Amino acid sequence: MWLDSSLLFLGFISLLNGVTALITSKAPVYGLITTILSAAVAGLVMYMMYRYFYRPKADNSRRTWNWKGFAATTLSVLLWIAVTIFSGLLPTSVNLQLPAIALVIVGLVAFGVRWLLKRQFNIQSALVAQPRR
What residue intervals traverse the membrane (predicted)? Predict the structure, then answer.
């Protein structure tokens, strides 16, 4: 589930930055390291939300407020913000600025790998609550 969400965010962030850079002819905002780390932590945030709040096998009549889940999700969102900010401060020699077309290709490859993994290994998505079995 984490990998599925991370690939989704990697594809979305890369495509968004690439298309925006193509349209405006400005350099992409995020470097490669920032994009990959942000996508990985965004996948963690989505998994935390799925784990603590969707709970597909739980009985909805006895659902109570989950402070532990709220704290874990809040901390993971703060980690996501911190990783995005601090990885953006890396020098451009480490945090490479890819051309716009390369970002579009990275985004399309991420979506393609996500689709193949879901099809091949039946990976479940953390963005949608799974049906009860």
Answer: 31-50, 70-90, 96-117
Structure confidence by residue, pLDDT tens digits, 8-42 = 999 999 999 999 999 997 777 788 999 999 999 99
C-beta neighbour count of 60 within 10 angstroms? 6
Burial of 77 (0-12, 13-18, 19+ CB in 10 A): middle
Residues 124 and 114: beta-carbon distance below 8 Å: no
**Residue recorded with tokens 């599925």:** 4
Question: Are 108 and 101 within 8 A, CB to CB?
Answer: no
Separation between Cα atoms, residue 64 and residue 24, nearest integer Å = 48
